Amino acid sequence: MKLKISEIKNVVNFRNDDNCDDLVASIKEHGLLEPVVVNENNELVGGYRRIQALQKLKMKEVPVHRVDAGTELERLTKTLIENLHRRAFTWQEEALLVKKIDDLSRQLHGSHPQGKHSSSSAELADDTWSTAKTAKILNKPERTVQIDVQLAKGIEKFPELLSVNKRAVAYKKMLGFQAKETLVSSIQTITPNISITKGDCIVNMRRLNPASIDLIFIDFPTNQNYESSDIQSSREQCIEFICAVLNESNRLLKQDGSIYVMPGVENASLVYGCLLQKKLSFQNWIIWHYRNSDLKIKDRFIPRYEPILFFTKSKTDFIFNKQKFISDLWIIPRVTESMPEKVDHPTQRPTQLLEIIVQTSSNPGNTVLDPMCGSGTTAVACNRLKRNFIGFETEQKNCELAKLRISEEIK
Question: What are the φ/ψ torsions at residue 372 (nearest 5 degrees)?
Fold first, then answer.
C-alpha cells in the first residue's frame, strides 16, 4: 500500500550529519526497494532517510508497511537492544525509542503511573506495565529508563535540546527549562500587595515585625528638612535622623536581605560609615550617571551622577539575581518633562533604576520597603515585577500621587 508523505506523522530525524545523496542515486536507478514502516496511526516507525530521499526527488507518495502495536514493539525492542550493544544511536534516538517501547508496552498491558519508581517483585509480577518492566526487558537501570522517557518528552517541548551532544548536559538543561517554566507560571498567578501609608517613616517602621523585609530602598531627601520627625536643618539632627532610619532598616531586614541607599553626594560618606557600624556587609558603591542635568552652575563642576550604596545583611548569603554582567556604573537618564512617566514630583526617580534594584535583589512574592517613597516609583516597579510593597510618605500630595500611579498600573 502507499501513503502520501504528507500523511505520515512524526517524520523527525536526530542525526545532523545524515546525508541521503547515495540513497537518492540508488532510488533513481533501482527504485525504492524497501517500504517505510508506519504504525496503525500512520506514525513513522522506520525509514526516515527513505522519506528524505523521496522528498528530494519530489515524490508525493511512498510505499509503506503497516505494523500493529505488538509487532512494532517486538521490532523496536530488538532494534534498540542490538544498537545499544554496538552504540549506534545518538542519545536523542535512544531516548525516543525507549519512550516508544515504554508507551507501546503500556498500551498493550495497561500501566502503572509513569514515574513510579519501584522495582519490587510484586510490581513486576503484576499484569500491568511499569517503568521497571521496560528497564528489565532492555536490561537497563530503571532510573536510566526514567531519564530517557523524561528526555524524550523534553525534546518535544524544548527542541533546543536536540543540539546538545551529551545526555547528562541535556538532562540538566531540561530541568532548568522546566524550573524556569514553573517559575514563570507561578509569577503570573501572583497579585502583589501594594501598601502606601501617610506618616512618619521611623514611627511606621517601628510597627513592622523584625526580619520581615527582603529588600529596602531608601532615597534620603536632599534638602535635609525633616519636619515630620521634628528635625531641623542642622547637621547633627540630620545625622541623628539618618542613623535612626538605618537602625530600623537593619532590624527589619531578613538574613538574606539587601538594602540600597541613595544618600546624596554630601551624605554618602556618613551613610556608608553608619551602615558599616550596623554590621551590614558592603557590596557595591554604584554610580548612577544620568548625563542630562538642568543645573546652571558657574563656580563648580555640574553634577551628573548620584551614588547608590548597596549593602546586605549577610556577607555572602543574599539574593542576587544576576542580570548578565551589569557593572556598578548605571547610565540611565533622569526623568524629564518630555518623558511619558513624568509626574508632578521634583525628584522623581526613573522606573528603570528601581526595576534593576528590585529584580536583582528580590524574588517574586518578596516584600520591598521604601520608607520615603515620594512619587511611588518603587511601588510601580514592585507592582510590575510581582513584589509586595510597603511604602511610607509624610506628604499627603505625594501619597495621593503614588496611589494614583499604582491604580493606573493595575488598570
Answer: -135, 75
